[in-house]
Write a structure and sequence with these properties.
Distance between the termini: 41 Å
Number of domains: 1
Number of helices: 5
Radius of gyration: 16 Å
Structural class: alpha/beta
CATH class: Alpha Beta
CATH architecture: Alpha-Beta Barrel
Strand order of the largest sheet: 1-2-3-4
Length: about 150
């Protein structure tokens, strides 16, 4: 079996990315963010089959260890509550991909490593992802401050 040990969900349903922009704008404006949009299994299949799944097959891999898009994790954006919600919706989306293609993808979660917070929320999210979503690991961000070095030492 050939396992790609480093795969990210790079082309996501448009509603997911639009919601993230709304989430950041709402935080900046001090307003309540709209609820996370309903994304259908067909929308997920469309993004996966024309991108990651196609590439896995073209490259001859059997499975990918799969996590949220690294460049969009950004736990330094907003505050801890924003980071927690963002991590949850991203991880839930990965969980849905794994559920649709369990023989092809193994889930790995992102953590809400907000630079101003302790690890309590990250530990809770890791536990949720492993125990409830069946993920096999997590991504640890060595610089959760996004290059601003505001995190505790």
């Amino acid at each position: 079996m050939i396992i790609d040990c480093h795969g990210h969900y790079t082309v996501l349903p448009k509603a997911h990315d639009a919601w993230r922009e709304e989430q950041k704008a709402s935080f900046k404006a001090g307003t309540e963010c709209l609820p996370y949009p309903a994304i259908t299994d067909d929308e997920i299949r469309e993004t996966i089959e024309s991108n990651q799944l196609r590439l896995i097959r073209e490259r001859g891999a059997d499975m990918t260890i799969f996590s949220p898009r690294a460049s969009a994790m950004a736990p330094h954006v907003g505050d801890q509550s924003l980071a927690v919600k963002w991590a949850q919706v991203c991880n839930d989306l990965i969980g849905r991909v794994v559920g649709l293609y369990p023989d092809v993808f193994a889930g790995v979660c992102m953590l809400p490593q907000s630079p101003e917070a302790d690890m309590t929320s990250s530990i809770a999210e890791l536990r949720r992802c492993v125990e409830q979503l069946g993920f096999i690991g997590c991504n640890l961000n060595p610089d959760p401050g996004g290059g601003h070095f505001r995190h505790p030492r």
